[in-house]
Specification:
The chain has helices at residues 15-23, 49-56, 81-88; strands spanning 2-10, 28-33, 40-46, 66-73. By secondary structure, the protein is α+β, with helices and mostly antiparallel strands. It has a four-stranded antiparallel beta sheet. Strand 2 (28-33) and strand 3 (40-46) form a beta hairpin. The longest helix is centred in the N-terminal third of the chain and has 9 residues, at 15-23. The chain is globular.
Length: 92
């Protein structure tokens, strides 16, 4: 699984609508509204690098209200959150 983190600058008047449209795209796992220089952080999780281009360049960038994107490919994940969640399933 390949994870891309996409920083999105969006039309400020349309941030909620843009976020919902992005969250509905295949390959997008999460969308966060954030403070700072960017408006949204989008997590894209796909099986291969070509799929990143399909999601980001072919679909995400074409959502009305997206002004600019910056994409970062993750090499490794160091968070224990996902691992701990997986082991806690059904452990009640």
């Amino acid at each position: 699984m390949i994870t891309a983190i996409v920083f999105v600058k969006a039309d400020v008047a349309r941030i909620p609508e843009v976020a919902e449209a992005l969250a509905a795209l295949d390959g997008v796992s999460e969308v966060y509204s954030v403070t700072g220089q960017i408006d949204l952080i989008v997590l894209v999780r796909v099986r291969n690098h070509d799929d990143i281009a399909a999601v980001v360049a072919d679909r995400l960038n074409k959502v009305e209200g997206v002004i600019e994107t910056e994409t970062h490919i993750a090499f490794r994940a160091y968070s224990r959150h996902d691992l701990e969640s997986a082991f806690s399933l059904g452990a009640e």
